[in-house]
Design a protein that fits this description.
The complex is a heterodimer of chains A (about 210) and B (about 250).
Chain A: H1 3-16, H2 20-31, H3 34-50, H4 60-79, H5 90-99, H6 104-112, H7 114-127, H8 131-142, H9 147-154, H10 158-177
Helix pairs in contact in A: 2-3, 2-4, 2-8, 3-4, 4-9, 5-7, 6-7, 7-10, 8-10, 9-10
Chain B: H1 3-6, H2 10-14, H3 20-32, H4 34-52, H5 61-72, H6 84-100, H7 111-124, E1 131-132, H8 136-146, E2 161-171, E3 174-183, E4 186-194, E5 206-208, E6 211-218, E7 221-227, H9 231-248
Antiparallel strand pairs in B: 1-2, 2-3, 3-4, 4-7, 5-6, 6-7
Chain lengths: ~210, ~250
């Protein structure tokens, strides 16, 4: 291939490939099965390479994850008729988790016992969250993204990110407590763009919550 | 700030996402509100268990390899997921398409492009090896059953090489044997056909898109090795392969 193209691909690889694990984890949680997630990651990386010229430095991980997320939803829409998204693998994964260590974490967990049994229940609970809550939770708890980064990736106001994260965590808290999953307590049901969104670090006043005098 | 106003901020407080002033207000409230501080303690415990549980899906190594290959040879990707018969046709189209779309090979697409294309396609495929065996007594009869000739299948055992198996590929309008070897972390595809059976010119030793192509003759057969090994390593491999193949070569059956 022409030298210019090879150089561009090389630069792209240096920027994007360090985040391939994060890309796969997000795709895997959104698609809820391995084969679809692999297709989505491949598709997203090709798309990212195509749009690489529009990447002007900045947070490469958030940039890539945004493309992965959009690819995942496009993929799900065009390849799975509504209501026919298979929950494949989740039960299987849970069984495998219990049966054999997949990685050092699992091995550690098996020794402790508690984390492994948590994992089965938590994995199922996360898989059953509505996608808009699931993606926020994955990006925060597993990828350690800031609220602002999550807002960029998901294209939502920060206040919305915050309330979705709280609701997702409420569900997990209910699982860990071992009780039935209850809806968020009334006290937590602040509106997404309520007062909360105006007090976030970084002067986070997003368009959705701005009061426009008429 | 009242209790009801503080409560929705606790997650953001825990994540250190509040601005300094609001953070201090929440902190002050927590000191005097047992309900909020108990809530925060429980939340931390829950998240601790979420983080301790193995919930992240590890990146499958084959996917990483596929992504890397696909970035380097974007056109080849189209053959993915296509049924095998279609993949052959698609692969040929792809090889030509790749040429038209800016691969600046000096000559028209020749056997070299097809050879690299076949190697990459095999690496991308879920079944790069059709007969999986390190025993030439298994591989050779299988190939003889698939092909109008019986190619040499040197095992190269006892050295740093291992025979992984073989498949049948379609190159230059004939069916050829593709032997797959492992050398260190690299794979070597060795394409073998009877000398003179292919109309296309046998390629010179060359490099295409980072792949080395080295040609040799063993008895009545032509062999081309394709690998991402360095030229020197592949050259040494070729010598070992040729020596073993010539020593054990049986005359072709046709």
């Amino acid at each position: 291939m022409p030298a210019g193209n090879a150089g561009r691909t090389g630069r792209f690889e240096a920027v994007a490939l360090p985040h391939l694990s994060a890309a796969y984890n997000l795709a895997r949680w959104l698609c809820r099965n391995e084969a679809d997630a692999a297709d989505v990651v491949q598709e997203a990386l090709m798309r990212a390479l195509q749009y690489f010229d529009s990447y002007h430095g900045g947070d490469a991980r958030a940039w890539l994850l945004q493309i992965v997320r959009n690819s995942a939803y496009t993929w799900i829409e065009s390849n799975r008729p509504a209501g026919r998204v298979p929950l494949d693998g989740d039960e299987l994964d849970a069984a495998m988790l219990a049966a054999q260590p997949m990685n050092p974490f699992t091995a550690q967990a098996a020794a402790g016992g508690e984390a492994a049994s948590d994992a089965v229940a938590l994995r199922r609970a996360i898989a059953q969250l509505p996608p808009e809550q699931r993606e926020v939770l994955i990006l925060r708890e597993f990828e350690d993204l800031s609220y602002r980064q999550i807002a960029e990736v998901t294209g939502s106001p920060i206040g919305t990110v915050m309330s979705r994260l709280s609701r997702a965590r409420d569900q997990l808290a209910a699982i860990v407590r071992g009780g039935p999953v209850v809806p968020a307590s009334p006290i937590m049901s602040a509106s997404p763009n309520g007062p909360a969104s105006r007090v976030l670090a970084g002067g986070a006043i997003e368009p959705g919550s701005r009061t426009v005098p008429s | 700030m009242t209790h009801d106003e503080v409560q929705p901020l606790l997650d953001a407080y825990l994540d250190d996402e509040l601005d300094l002033a609001t953070g201090l207000i929440v902190q002050a409230h927590l000191r005097e509100c047992p309900q909020c501080s108990a809530w925060l303690t429980e939340r931390r415990a829950v998240l601790g268990r979420v983080h301790a549980a193995p919930l992240r899906y590890p990146l499958p190594a084959p996917l990483e390899a596929r992504v890397r290959a696909q970035l380097r040879w974007p056109r080849h990707r189209q053959a993915l997921g296509v049924p095998w018969s279609g993949a052959l046709a698609a692969g040929l189209l792809v090889a030509i398409g790749g040429f038209l779309l800016g691969h600046s090979w000096p000559r028209p697409p020749d056997l070299r492009a097809e050879l690299v294309s076949a190697s990459v396609r095999a690496a991308l495929s879920a079944h790069p090896i059709e007969v999986l065996s390190s025993d030439h007594h298994t591989v050779k009869p299988w190939l003889s059953g698939q092909l109008p000739f019986s190619p040499p299948v040197p095992e190269l055992s006892g050295q740093d090489d291992a025979l992984l198996g073989a498949r049948v590929d379609y190159l230059g309008s004939i069916r050829v044997a593709a032997l797959v070897y492992q050398h260190g972390h690299h794979q070597v595809n060795v394409y073998v056909w009877p000398r003179g059976a292919m109309r296309a010119a046998v390629p010179d030793d060359s490099q295409v898109d980072g792949y080395q192509l080295l040609t040799t003759q063993a008895g009545a057969f032509t062999a081309v090795m394709v690998s991402d090994l360095s030229a020197a390593e592949l050259d040494a491999f070729r010598e070992r392969w040729r020596a073993t193949a010539t020593a054990s070569a049986a005359p072709p059956t046709n």
